[in-house]
Amino acid sequence: MKHFLKINKKILHIILLLLIPVFFIELIYGNWQDHYNFKRIEKLDILKNFQVNYKIGHLYDSESEIIEYTRDTWGLRGASENIKDIDILVIGGSTTDQRYISDADTYDQVLENEFKKNGKNIKVANAGNSAHSSYAFIKYFDLWFPNVPNLNPKYYLFLIGDNDFLRFKDDMRDKLIVNNVKFSLKRFLTERSILYPLIRKIKYVFSESKGRTIYISGQVYGDYSLNEWVNKPNFNNDEFIQFSKKVNYQNNLKNYENNLTILINKIKSLGGIPIFVTESKRRAYTFVENKIYGIPLDNSPSPSLGNPDINGVDYFYMMKSLHESTKDISDKKGAIFIDLNDLEFDLRKDFWNVGHNTPTGNLKKGKYLYSKLEKIISK
Amino acid sequence: MKKLIKSIIIMAIIFISLSLLIYLTNNIEFFNNIMNDKNFNYSWN
What we know:
Chain A is of the alpha/beta class.
């Protein structure tokens, strides 16, 4: 019995010898002091300290079939080590989140690289979140950005439009604030710990070839064919007015304009400069000899344009009026406006579905944004 | 007393080693490449 107690004491001693330094390491280097900031950001349910690998071979051709998607401690993608160095913060929905694009191929990374190539050290970080709209972006300025220490970009670039299109009253996507976040001990510890990412990395280095769990992207490649495209809207004028009423289009447009004004005011009060870039499901329409062509009506359970009553041509005209609103508000309130509709894409190669770009599309997008911003952006 | 000093030294060594490992993997490109990409072919030039 005595011998047994002695061994137990020794084991306890060894455990303590290991645990005490680990405790101090966590206390000093971990994110525990940011607990309250984290708590506020959690209300938006934004992924933080997150890394995942996706298999994307079925979506687009790429050198590597597996891509890496990373978000840092504060939920930002592609941010530099020093948050205070960030010059441009890009904000948007899934087209900015770019879930199935590797960290190195996002359009914001292309933009940063273009600045670098031309001798300007401009750091770009990404605050995109799939499905979020202007309603969510406003909340970022109350719940997210003020809680990221030293985050003070000069430019806030919004890729905006599509998620604000055809919104219905009380859209679930607007009810972002989660008041009763379910407590998860694993999430609590992993988001704040400094040793957890280190253990994960060491495990990866010593594991067999591809140690990390690789998820296959649940998205499917959206077939591209010009065969059934149409060159007329589905609606005549009267039908369009009726449809507009049904989906509350005019009212949504007013709310959208109001949201833009709120965003501009918030950014200006922080001493920043807002930039609005138009966002559309760009593969839904195209121009052939100056004539508009759009994808046909889609009656599948989840139509690619979000509504079975509109075709690509209807979509183009409706988005045009939304983007005109963005331009008007930008001109009136002193924001920079960039129309991505002016950029020519190869619709077959540059998209993996109706609205989301492949790396080749992102390369064009990033370079186009650089061409528009090179003279405007300064340190 | 001797045992206590020995324990403190061991704990200090563990603390310093872990701190160094965290610093190296986060800040030095060579270690960063290994940890993130299993890339051991770093050019020092």
